[in-house]
Amino acid sequence: QKEVEQDPGPLSVPEGAIVSLNCTYSNSAFQYFMWYRQYSRKGPELLMYTYSSGNKEDGRFTAQVDKSSKYISLFIRDSQPSDSATYLCAMSAWGGATNKLIFGTGTLLAVQP
Amino acid sequence: GAVVSQHPSWVICKSGTSVKIECRSLDFQATTMFWYRQFPKQSLMLMATSNEGSKATYEQGVEKDKFLINHASLTLSTLTVTSAHPEDSSFYICSARDRATDTQYFGPGTRLTVL
């Protein structure tokens, strides 16, 4: 079993839709959770970073963590064609950027105008 | 925001040659840099962790003699793929830790094709 599971998609939605992206994990030691956006042939860009259960909001993006269920989600409101990219969840057992991140396989999202 | 650059952005080389990829933090000091490789439609796989002024720590299964990493300064790390073969063709991405904010930032990646 992989440490982090993520539905690879592809996920296609119309512009303006609410998008839900999800990851599950098996390692209860993971305490820090991140979402990255990666455009084709580019490096990942950090979108959200959280370390506690509950919701964290930043503009149109909301990250949700449920440690009891080992489940995290990223919600995108009012999705735009520019949101079309691969979204990667990443996790770490310890805080701080010196520690190894474990990535999901990524979900390819296409927002249709 | 913090910017990480990689050079070259893409490279094509013949089998048996060596290729050097540079990773630079442009506006911050990075005591720690990470090197990943990514195959098409797959996630990032950590290859090694590089700390400035010391030897890199390689992940299990990554050949340290084939993938040479040097982190000689707080803004530069290099990955050299020695005696490259077609199976080394991949997308190589570095990330750098901004010690002021304790955040990891990724470079744009280098696409290596070995003929």
The outline of chain B comes out as globular
Number of helices of chain B: 0
List how many beta strands of chain B DSSP finds: 11
Quaternary status: heterodimer
Q: What class would the helix/strand composition of chain B place it in?
A: mainly beta
Percent helix of chain A, as a range, is under 10%
Q: How is the biggest beta sheet of chain A arranged?
A: 6 strands, mixed
Task: List key phrases describing it.
heterodimer; A: 113 residues; 11 strands; globular; B: 115 residues; four-stranded antiparallel sheet
What is the gist of this entry?
The complex is a heterodimer of chains A (113) and B (115). Chain A is mainly β and 113 residues long. Chain A has strands at residues 4-6, 11-14, 19-25, 32-38, 45-50, 54-58, 61-66, 71-76, 85-92, 102-103, 107-112.
Detailed description of the structure:
The complex is a heterodimer of chains A (113) and B (115). Chain A is built from no helices and eleven strands. Chain A is 0% helix and 53% strand. In chain B, a hairpin with a 4-residue loop joins strand 9 and strand 10. Chains A and B meet through strand 5 of A and strand 4, strand 5, strand 9 and strand 10 of B.
